[in-house]
Amino acid sequence: MVRRTAFLCLTFLVGTSLPSCALWRPAPVAAPEVHLDGMRVLDRPGRGPRYRLALRIVNPSDHELAIAALSCRLKIGGVPVVESFAGPLHTLPPESALRVEVEAPTNAIDRLKLSGRLAGRAPPDYELEVRLRRPWTLMPLVLIDAGTLPREN
């Protein structure tokens, strides 16, 4: 009799708590943003061309954003130019921003394609994809920024 009563109580608790969990919705969290602040060509005699990218990561939410590392890909005028990695990074406090500078080598062939498209034109459009690796998560947070390429600093 005691077992049956315990089983009925357990069934009641599980049966009433599961539907209430399905109705619970967390409050929406503002998504982080990334912006390309600047891009500069680094002259290194005897070595392949390199770029220095200045990225600004904005955390508009009221929760901290822990970033273990980031990887970025930059396309200019549709041509993939730069791929880079930076880490370890810090935790962004709520409603704050972090400026990150990364150096990245570029492929000489891609640079030739890019210089051919840029000859005598206005600043081209770019697309920046940044993947934020967060601690204790398997999937990175993917952020996209697009616009007109900023002038060299």
Question: Would you write up a description of this structure?
Answer:
This protein has a single domain (33-148), classed as Sandwich (Immunoglobulin-like), CATH 2.60.40. The protein is elongated and about 85 Å long. The protein has helices at 2-23, 108-118, and strands spanning 33-42, 50-59, 65-66, 69-76, 79-86, 91-92, 96-105, 125-133, 141-148. The protein contains 2 helices and 9 strands. 22% of the residues lie in helices and 44% in strands. With 153 residues, it is an alpha+beta fold. It has a 4-stranded antiparallel β-sheet. A 3-stranded antiparallel β-sheet has the order 1-2-7, with no helix packed on it. Strands 3-6 form a two-stranded antiparallel sheet.
Main features:
Immunoglobulin-like; four-stranded antiparallel sheet; three-stranded antiparallel sheet; 153 residues; alpha+beta; 2 helices
Write the layout of secondary structure elements.
Elements: H1 2-23, E1 33-42, E2 50-59, E3 65-66, E4 69-76, E5 79-86, E6 91-92, E7 96-105, H2 108-118, E8 125-133, E9 141-148
Antiparallel strand pairs: 1-2, 2-7, 3-6, 4-5, 4-8, 8-9
